């Protein structure tokens, strides 16, 4: 098993919060790799060790839950093609969206064992007359990179800062119950992201309906983690601080 070593602080956090110690990690990894070898349709030969460990950590080392998420992840391309088609990061259209800074993981965490803060700026999409599905696709692409490369993200989780400044009605009306259901099917059932808090900034008038739809598909514990805020600031270290 070839994965990055953890710092002492992250190793302690992993033991306390996601039931991970060196012995269970190796044991669960080996069982998961053996299971994958029995399911060639999941293309197990191209799944890296680090990617598998991210799924184990996101499932808190519950093997059955982890297997279910992996199966769903590799069948999502047909269920949600708008999120999984045309994912070439060098494609001009994708480049245009990336340069807008729609979905920005901040460089520094608040501490060595803190969640990764991610800033989402939906209003920037209006500059290119984009669709809601564009920002969702970019978000999923970057989240998958974080799952592979960021141990704070996989162990400590993600704290989302969603800035709704300049989010017009054209974007809000795209947030239908049908689309919300599909998005959360992907987010909760296939990816292994531990969302610790969702901070909503600058919510426009008329956003109440969109937020109500948003909450319809969330588990109860995640509903309690949605917080409306008036202000945040970004420090010189690239760390968001609540005001």
Protein model, in words:
By secondary structure, this protein is of the alpha/beta class. The protein has two domains: 8-79; 89-242, CRAL-TRIO lipid binding domain (Phosphatidylinositol Transfer Protein Sec14p, 3-Layer(aba) Sandwich), CATH 3.40.525.10. 48% of the residues lie in helices and 13% in strands. The chain contains 13 helices and seven strands. Strands 1-2-3-4-5 form a five-stranded mixed sheet. α2 (22-37) crosses α3. Mean pLDDT is 83; it is low at 230-243. This is Retinol-binding protein pinta-like isoform X2. InterPro entries: CRAL-TRIO_dom (IPR001251), CRAL-TRIO_dom_sf (IPR036865), CRAL/TRIO_N_dom_sf (IPR036273).
Structure class? alpha/beta
**Cα-atom Rg, whole angstroms?**
18 Å
Helical content, roughly? 40-55%
Mean pLDDT metric: 83
- Biggest beta sheet attributes: 5 strands, mixed
**End-to-end Cα distance:** 43 Å
Helix and strand element order: HHHHHHHEEHHEHHEHHEEE
Name the strands of the widest sheet in spatial order.
1-2-3-4-5
Class of the largest domain, according to the CATH hierarchy?
Answer: Alpha Beta
CATH domain topology of the largest domain? Phosphatidylinositol Transfer Protein Sec14p
Low-confidence stretches: 230-243
Number of strands: 7
The tally of structural domains comes to 2
* The named CATH superfamily of the largest domain: CRAL-TRIO lipid binding domain
Strand content: 5-15%
Gross CATH architecture of the largest domain: 3-Layer(aba) Sandwich
GO molecular function: phosphatidylinositol bisphosphate binding
GO cellular component, one term: membrane
Organism: Bombyx mandarina
Domain CRAL-TRIO: 91-243
């Amino acid at each position: 098993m070839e994965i990055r070593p953890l710092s002492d602080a992250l190793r302690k956090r992993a033991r306390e919060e996601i039931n991970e110690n060196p012995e269970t990690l190796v044991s669960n990894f080996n069982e998961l790799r053996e299971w994958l070898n029995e399911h060639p349709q999941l293309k197990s030969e191209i799944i890296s060790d680090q990617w598998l460990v991210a799924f184990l950590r996101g499932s808190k080392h519950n093997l059955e839950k982890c297997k279910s998420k992996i199966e769903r992840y590799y069948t999502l391309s047909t269920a949600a093609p708008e999120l999984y088609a045309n994912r070439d990061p060098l494609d001009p259209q994708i480049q245009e969206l990336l340069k807008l800074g729609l979905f920005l993981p901040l460089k520094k965490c608040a501490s060595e064992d803190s969640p990764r803060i991610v800033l989402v700026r939906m209003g920037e999409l209006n500059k290119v007359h984009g669709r809601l599905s564009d920002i969702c696709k970019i978000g999923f692409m970057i989240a998958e990179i974080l799952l592979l490369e960021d141990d704070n993200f996989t162990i400590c989780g993600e704290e989302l800062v969603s800035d709704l400044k300049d989010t017009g009605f054209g974007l809000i009306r795209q947030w239908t119950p049908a689309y919300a259901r599909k998005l959360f099917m992907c987010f909760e059932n296939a990816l292994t992201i531990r969302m610790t808090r969702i901070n909503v900034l600058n919510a426009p008038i008329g956003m109440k309906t969109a937020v109500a739809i948003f909450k319809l598909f969330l588990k109860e514990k995640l509903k309690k983690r949605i917080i409306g805020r008036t202000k945040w600031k970004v420090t010189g270290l690239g760390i968001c601080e609540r005001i």
